[in-house]
Structures are given as C-alpha cells and as structure tokens.
Amino acid sequence: MAANVLVKQVQAKWNNSFARLNRAEPGITGLLAFSEAWRIATNFLYPRDLNDPTPRKEYSMQEVRASFEFLSRAKMLPLLMENFLEDMRKQQHLIERDINKYMAEFEAADTPDHIARMIFRLEKWYKEWSPIPELGSILLSAYTLAFHTHLYSSFPPSFSRGFKQLIASSFSFVNAPCPQWAVPPEPHPPLPPGPARQDVFLWSACETLGLLDRYESLIASVCYEYIEAHVMETCAKRWQESTLAYLREWMTDRVVPWMVMPYARGARSADEARQMLQGVGSRFDYHMCKTLCDLRLQELFDIIVDYPDSMPALQDLKECLSRVDQRNELVKSLRRANRKRLLHPGADTNSIIDQYKNTMNALRFLDPPGVLLYKVADPIRRYLRERPDTIRSIVTYLVGDGEGGEGLGNENENEPIQPLQQRQADDYNDPNWEPEPIDAGPDFRTNKPTDVISTLVSIYDSKDLFVKELQVLLAQRLLAVTDGNYEKERRNIEILKVRFGEAALQVCEVMLRDMTDSRRIDQHIQAQKQMPLHPTIVSRHFWPPLQTSMFNMPGQFKEIQEAYAKEFHLFKPDKKLHWLPHLGTISLDIELQDRTVSAEVPPLEAAIIEHFSTKDTWDVADLATEMKIERAAALKAVLTWVDLGVLKEEDTGLYKLLEVAEEASSSSNPVARQAAMEDTSSVLTVQQQEQEQMKVYWKFIEGMLTNLGSLSLARIQSMLKLAPGYDRTIEQLADFMEAARREGHVTVRDGVWRLQQ
What we know:
The protein is built from 31 helices and 8 strands.
C-alpha cells in the first residue's frame, strides 16, 4: 500500500515537471524548445579563453533574450546561474596562468608597471566573462562576487607588495602626464580633461576588480607613508620657520588631487567630491600633524637649546598638540633626552641651568598651566639639588659674571623686577579660579611661581642658602675691585634686595659700606703720612670667613705694616688691625746688577723674594720652614720668580738669585709649575665653610662613638641636634660620615657606625 502511494507521488511530480518544461505542447515539442534555449544560454555565458584565436559563435540578442525568457518561465534561471558559476570555476586556471606570468615578471624586475598591466589584463577577463546587463542585476552580482573571490584566492603573497608600489607610484601622476603602462593597451574612450585625472583608467580597473575596497587600508598606508616621507625630508631641523602652513598647502596641491580617484570616484560635482573627501581628508591631516609632532618631539631637546630662535617650531608643535594628544609622549621623550644628554656628571652646571631656563620658557609657551613643565622639570630640579655647585651657579646668574655680565636680574629689561614668588594656597572665593588640568599630578599646583629666578631659587626649601652664597660671591667681587668703582655691585645689591628682601641683604650692605669706608680711612692715613701700602679694611663679623695663613711679612714689608697699623690706631683708637698677609697684591721693582724687574705679585711671592735679599741661594724646604708655610706654597711662589727670570734652579729644590740675566733654561718642570700657579680664592666658599663647621662637630661624633660604642645614623643626628648651631640634614650628615669612612676614621655595617679600631 505504501509503495503504491510513493509511486503515485513520484509520478505526479514527474508529470508536473514535464508539463512545465514542455509548456503544454503536443508530444515533446516543448521539451525540445527548452533544450535549445538551454544550449543557447549556456553557450552564450560560457567563459571563453582570451588567448584562444578561435572565433566565438555569435548569437543575435533576440535569440539570447528569448532563450532567457523561456528558461525564466520554466523557473530554471537558478540552475542556469549555478551552471555558469561552475563553468567559470573550471576556467579559473586561465586567469591564474596570466597572474603567474605577470607576477613572475614583477618579481624579476621589481617595478610596478607589470602589476598595472596585470590589472588591465584581469579587467579584460572580467569584462569578457561578464553577463550582459539585460540579463538582470542578480546574475551580474553573483558573477562579480564569484569572480572577485576566485581572483583574490589566486593572488600570491607578493601581490600586496607590488600593488603597494603601484599605488605609491600613482602620486607621480598628480599634475603630470602618466606613463604609458598606466593606460590600457586596447582602444579606450578619450581621457577626461585636466592633468590630475590622467590615471583614471588605472583607478577604474582597480574599482572594477574590487581592489579599492579590499586593499583600502593598504592604499591609506601608502598615503600615510608618502606624507611621513615628505614631512621628514622637508621639516627635519627646520626650526627657524613655521612648516605647518607649508605642509597644509602641499597637502592641498599634491595629496587632495590624488585622493579624488580612490575616495571620491563616484562624485558628480566638486561639492559632492569635497563632501566625500571630508572624512578621509581629516584623517590624513591628523596623520600629517601627528608625524610633524613626532618629529618635533624627537628634536625637542635641541629645539629648547636653540630657544628663542626656535619659536616657530614651538608654535607648530603647540598647534599639533591641540590636534594630536601627544602630551604624555612629550614628557617621556624630553625626560629621556634630559637623562641621556643633560643629567650626567659630564654636563656643566651652568649648561644644565641654561637648559632648565629654556625648558621653563618653552614648556610654558606650549602649556601655560604648567603641567608639562612640572612633569619634565622635576628630575632636573632633583638633580640640581644634588650638585654641590648649583647654588653658586644660580647666584652667578643672579648678579652676572665677568665684564658686561648681565645676570638673570636683567633678563627682561622692559619688565620691573619682582620679589621672589611664593606658592600660595588656592582661593576658592576667587571668581577667576579654575580647577587644575585633568592630567595634573597629585602634587601639582597651578599657582606655583612662574618667574624664572623664583623657580630656580625654589629648587631649595630655604633661600638662606642663596643669601650665604651671595655674601661669598659679593666678597670675592668686592675684593677683586682695584679702581674703587663699586657701582655695579651696588646696583646688584639693590636688585637682590627687591628679590630677597632688605633684611636678607643687610650683611651685603655692610660689606659694601666697608669697602667705601676703607678707601676713606686709607685716604685719611695717606694724608697724615704717605705710605706705599693701601689695605682693604673689613668688619670681621659681617664678612664670610677669609682664607687664613700663619706667615708674617719679612723685612721692609713688616715695617710698612707696623707703621700703617700705628697710624690706623691713632685714627681709630677703639679698633685694631689683624693682617691677612697672603691676600692682595704688591707692585715691586727689583733692582739687579744689569736690570730692573717690575712685577705685580701676591704678598707671598713678595715675601719669598725678600728673603733672597738676605741670601742669594735658598732651598725650598728651608724657605717653607723659615716662613712657616707649606712646601707647595713656597714652590709656587719661587716658580713665579723663575718664570720672570729672577731666580734659577741650581739643583733639585735649590734656587739662586740671578743678579746677571741668563738665557732661558728649559730645566724647570712645566707640569709642576702649572700646578703651582693655580689660583685660590681669597674667600671660603659656602661648601668650604660647611666642611670647616663639620670638623667641629666631628669632635661630638667621636665622643659619642667612644662612649656609646656604635650608633645608627638617625641616633647620631638626634644627638647632634643638641649641639649649639647644628642645622645639618641627615643627608648631609650621611655624606660627612661617608667621607670619614673613606679617610679611615669610622666603619659601618648594617647601618651602624663605629670608630675604626
């Protein structure tokens, strides 16, 4: 029973299909008509070999349309489409043969013209196999999808490289005739007007094959690299002129015309093309700004070195930073460059301060709130704080150094000098108050000092250190004045009083008054009794400690000093002179048998030659013993007279007075002479003063370790605070203890210090 039902169902379906194909014609006439329509349609659609010279059978379009209409009524078009796509798959090897041929030529020559010819050849394959539009969009879409799928699967890996070269070469077509290989070989329609569209056929072929959509990211990367190469070539190390406006003009002339074909090829008007290019144009402008920003960040250290001549480059960088968020990269790049090129022992402290000053000015221009400066400057400030000569270098900037030295006090001559700025608490009642920037750190404050000098001074917690160094530097400069003109120093003091306050500069005013009073006292004494001595008289309690020496001036120099002291006591009965014989200069005329030698020398050299007036030959060791000075100091003084031709070395360490001049001798040691001639300052520096004070505290430390055995650094620090005048930090104490350890006075183990046994 079931079998009969199945037979009836199959028979019904067969009869239904036969009726549909036979079209109710008598016999099998309709079936024969269907067979003829199928044959015509499949032969018409069959993919032909372009290399086959056999002519293709021509069908009239009337026959073709009739066949497709017949198959459509028979509902056989889906089957026809499947048959066509299967035939195309079987013929795919013909296309692969051409692809392999052109790719082999490209890999041998490595030039993009072979890729262009292959694309035109593939376009011809596509058009040759493509169904006519009259057959409907469904068949055409299915064919296009299948053709592209088979095509992409046939491309070797090297095609991407070749296609990238081809796209890169298309930039040379802009505003210039394209080469012959960029135009298809067969007859083609006339070119559109305008030189910028000479590569229209190449882009049209790429669109036909779907390459523009499939390789969209590759095409964009070519434009990115083109922009990068041009920026690097034209903008590197060009800081004295703005380049951003030039780059945007270049983009308008070279990149935008190129963008029309790959990104606005369907535009029907200029406005429509402009609208289509708006998005991608913004991406390319962003990339241009980012490339320029990256370049300037790499060069930022050198740009800051050239500040303010490099202001145009900073202006470009500021505009790029507003377009591209590269603030973190700026901080990392500049900190890395500072660490490599600036913050190391080989860099001079003055150079570091110069670069820090330029960094402040440059980063405040880029970021007025100061977040970038805060992040970049922190390592510089910490490094400068660790350098022993930083304070002295900053003070030198404050007052200027050398002839014509301007100093930081005169950095902006058109602006009034301001007091040192101090950090203030936020005033939330201020209507102009603004919150801190979003990328500011937890310790950042927007009201930090912006004045250059205030920022430099704020490296240290207290300005007292600068005041002490100012006193030392002023003492050296005052003692170096020989013409009595202290106007420059007086002006510097007035400027510094504005900066630091009058109370902090009272000692400096006393020092300056001592110099003028000294000249007045000397003029009075000279009026009473003419003397060749013109001393500088200073108040011991107001001046920094001066270099001391134990020797006394011999002979006539001692007599002159005693006579001057007597006259001074008559003028100032309540005061007494304490001579510093090693400071100052003495003008001498040494009369020998055949000549007179004139020289201006320090007192020690004058004392040495005075001893030769009593004895012609002296040993350096004997001179040192006689004058109660070190042998090195005596040798330095003797070598001065050897250089002047007054003394001669008879034997090692033995020198003789030359009454009669001799020819210059080369027996003296030039290295020793150069070392001996090094000058020493007349005033103890702040560092030297601290070392002398720490020697006093060493007695306390030695007593602690003797009585208590061993102590930690923190315990030593807490006990030293009981000593009068002790104000050192634990870091300074650690440096002192480490120096004592190197000298063999103490040892340390596990942070515990004890005396060396």
